[in-house]
């Protein structure tokens, strides 16, 4: 990605510095390209100190829960605290699942930002692969999108302990599941916006816009 100059003055021309975390599981090019097209300056990193120092964090959907959980530091506290305190974050598919405490897929603990667990999809055909309707709630992540249809590639779904964090739902197999969650400025989506045509690009653009607004509203000398 082309590196753009960092504007530390906190004005509206700030270029958002996004850390795209690399679990070491696959190609992140399409997601990095989509973020760059939305106006962000993207750094792919596997260093949590660097990731948490950015203006915004993206947890991608490539890999398995156990491998990704192993890439988290032993002490999840600093990551959870950063997100609780307002660091903008977009978790995609596996990245959304990492918001939760645990997963049926494999051993290991997530960040614990959202109370709940990740369960295997109950359906005749698994994985859940392809396009599906998404029922969205009123949230800036979905601004300008009417009748969202998104691309899925998942064998597991998130089950929050309560419905409070849920901002989107889809139906597949045995029932309805959380297609999107939000806690503070951390958004998670079970689908892949970078593979979801113009509506997915709009979601990524909305995230970059909201994260930039949060960064520019921070007091001078602070990240957010």
* DSSP strand tally: 13
Distance between the termini: 24 Å
Reported by name, the CATH topology of the domain at 17-113 and 181-216 is: Rossmann fold
State the major sheet. Answer: 8 strands, mixed
Strand percent estimate: 25-35%
What is the alpha-carbon Rg in Å? 16 Å
Structure characterization notes:
The protein is an alpha/beta fold. It has a domain at 17-113 and 181-216: Class I glutamine amidotransferase (GATase) domain (Rossmann fold), CATH 3.40.50.880. It is built from 6 helices and 13 strands. The chain has helices spanning 29-37, 48-53, 65-71, 77-84, 94-97, 197-216; strands at 17-21, 41-45, 56-59, 89-92, 102-103, 116-120, 128-133, 135-136, 149-154, 156-160, 166-172, 175-183, 186-189. The longest helix is centred in the C-terminal third of the chain and has 20 residues, at 197-216. The protein starts with 16 loop residues before the first strand and ends in an 8-residue tail after the last helix. The model is unreliable at 1-11 and 219-224 (pLDDT under 50).
Give a short synopsis of this structure.
The protein is an alpha/beta fold. It contains 6 helices and 13 strands.
What is the fold's blueprint, element by element?
Elements: E1 17-21, H1 29-37, E2 41-45, H2 48-53, E3 56-59, H3 65-71, H4 77-84, E4 89-92, H5 94-97, E5 102-103, E6 116-120, E7 128-133, E8 135-136, E9 149-154, E10 156-160, E11 166-172, E12 175-183, E13 186-189, H6 197-216
Parallel strand pairs: 1-2, 1-3, 3-4, 4-13, 5-6
Antiparallel strand pairs: 6-10, 7-9, 8-11, 11-12, 12-13
């Amino acid at each position: 990605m082309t590196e753009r100059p960092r504007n530390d003055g906190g004005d509206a021309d700030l270029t958002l510095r996004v850390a795209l975390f690399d679990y070491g599981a696959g190609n992140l090019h399409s997601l990095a390209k989509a973020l760059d097209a939305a106006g962000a300056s993207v750094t792919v990193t596997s260093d949590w100190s660097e990731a948490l120092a950015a203006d915004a964090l993206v947890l991608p959907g490539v890999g398995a829960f156990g491998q990704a959980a192993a890439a988290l530091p032993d002490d999840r506290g600093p990551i959870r605290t950063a997100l609780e305190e307002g660091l903008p974050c977009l978790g995609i598919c596996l990245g959304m699942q990492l918001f939760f405490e645990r997963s049926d897929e494999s051993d290991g603990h997530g960040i614990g930002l959202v109370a709940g667990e990740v369960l295997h999809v109950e359906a005749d055909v698994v994985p859940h692969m392809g396009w599906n309707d998404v029922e969205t709630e009123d949230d800036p992540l979905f601004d300008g999108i009417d009748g969202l249809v998104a691309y899925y590639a998942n064998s597991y779904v998130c089950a929050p302990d309560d419905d409070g964090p849920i901002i989107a739902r889809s139906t597949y197999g045995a029932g309805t599941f959380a297609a999107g969650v939000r806690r503070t400025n951390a958004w998670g989506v079970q689908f892949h916006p970078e593979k979801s045509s113009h509506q997915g690009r709009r979601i990524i653009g909305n995230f970059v816009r909201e994260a930039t607004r949060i960064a520019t509203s921070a007091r001078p000398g602070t990240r957010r």
